[in-house]
Amino acid sequence: MRFYLILSLFLSFSCGLFAMETITLCVTPMALKSSQGQLSEKVFRKIFNKLNYQLEIQLFPPLRLAERMKSGHIDGELIRIASYADSRPYLIRVEEPHFQFTIATYSSHKDTAVSGWESLKNRHVAYRKGVKAVSSKLNSISEKSYLHPHKDISKAMNMLHLNRIELYVGIEYLVDELLKE
After folding, report:
1. Cβ distance 26 to 69 under 8 Å?
2. Partners of 26 in the beta sheet?
3. Using CB atoms within 10 A of its CB, is residue 101 exposed (0-12), middle (13-18) or buried (19+)?
4. In what order do the strands lie in the sheet with 21-27?
5. With DSSP H G I counted as helix, E B as strand and the rest as coil, what are the percentages for the chain, rounded to 5?
């Protein structure tokens, strides 16, 4: 009987020693759904598991994700553009990129000519809210009345199809994966 008591105390103590701590990373649903998001999740899960950490992924829209990060409610973000940390001193940037992305312009008309950011000036352009690489550049060259930020890429693409906007500018792999569906 004494042996079982000692064994049960040992097991309860040792289970606490080997319990995995949880690392919480956030990402937008669309980014996680992408092939790059899926790859990043697998890589991070494997790395954290080897370091005896459990990875928890939480999904939030871009602006709420940024608020949660600033408040300290999460440990980090699964995917972010490198320059994002430049204006956020509370973040620690991992210098090694997971992958690179291309910003692309989409139109409903084959004859639409785009040759760099300046060619988008004062044209009705939609983009996804929270994508700083796109929004900061567009806001620096165009008046706000020409810019149409959206939370949902599919709704913006629908506006493009209905000729309510001239162009959509976004992260190529996210838009292309949406268009394939």
Report:
1. yes
2. 58, 77
3. middle
4. 53-59, 21-27, 76-77
5. 50, 20, 35
Residue in the structure block whose two tokens are 């352009």: 125
- How many C-alpha atoms does 97 have within 13 Å on its Cβ side? 8
Q: Which pLDDT tens digit goes with each residue over 87-137?
A: 888 888 777 777 788 899 999 988 888 999 999 998 999 999 878 889 989
Distance CA 91, CA 85 (A): 6
User: pLDDT of 4-63, one tens digit each?
Assistant: 334 343 444 444 455 689 999 999 888 898 888 899 999 999 999 999 999 999 999 888
Burial of 2 (0-12, 13-18, 19+ CB in 10 A): exposed
